[in-house]
Amino acid sequence: MSKHRHTEPPSDLVLRVKALESLLLEKGLVDAAALDILIDTYENKVGPRNGAKVVARAWADPAYKTRLLADATTAIAEFGFVGRQGEDMLVVENTPGIHNLTVCTLCSCYPWPVLGLPPVWYKAAPYRSRAVHDPRGVLREFGLELPEDVEIRVWDSTAELRYLVLPERPTGTESFSEDELASLVTRDAMIGVAKATAPDGTAGANT
Amino acid sequence: MTANVPPLPDQPRDERGPVFREPWEAQAFAMTLKLYEGGYFTWSEWAAALASEIAAAKARGEADLGDTYYQHWLAALEKIATAKKLVLDTDLRKRRAAWEKAARRTPHGHPIVLSPED
After folding, report:
1. Adjacent-strand bridge partners of B53
2. Residue B99 to chain A, least CA–CA distance (Å)
3. Which residue in the set A1, A17, A23 is minimally distant from B74, CB to CB?
């Protein structure tokens, strides 16, 4: 678990949005649940496609994968995806024996240059605490049942370091182009609550 | 859900609608839409407020809409919300300072919450 302090205060823009939002909510001029639902409809847009391109190239190009695992910030910047505050990225690789899961309560600690907007459940306190204490149970709720002998590693993002999960490449995709591979990579797979989509479209099946 | 609002000039979008680069941009967008749906201002009032912010920025020599579009958006939203007396400008500034103070004292990994002394 990280003991990081928040050395970087939120930006002026983030603070102004927080100020306006909290006042409007208190006055009952907007409804918190309705705001969340609206934001939710955009969370899957644009960002996750950036991350999917990174994952697809790592699957297709072993030299890129080596660079990505050694220095993710630089390797991801090859695509032009760079964080605003210069935060560092670490890519953690799933293998048949290890499954990685990322968490953080603060939406500022989400790698949105590659993953887009954080889903509402990711920001919710129950997800973070339960992901740490009962990751297997959380994954089961997402429909991902892992064998008992698979080790689950939970990564707590910080303001300075954010994680991206490199899912396992689905079998049966040997002839796929990078674009075709990218279409199998979902946001949830890069957070670690799902596996990459199998070529037949089924979620989670890796074999 | 948001299909009924006419597109605004220069708003970053793809074939499926608006796109955002950072979470706060989507939050500002969502608040605007919900206030409009609540009848607190009309869409043409909003479009005029936003256009006026963008025009003012251009006059100051800041014309990079790709990077700064939602900064103008937020400024326009603050202005229309205070002009319509939904919030007071002084409250906005006090609350911004309170959130900054709360963020500074909150250790990483804990939700940022306001306390009475903020």
Report:
1. none
2. 6
3. A17
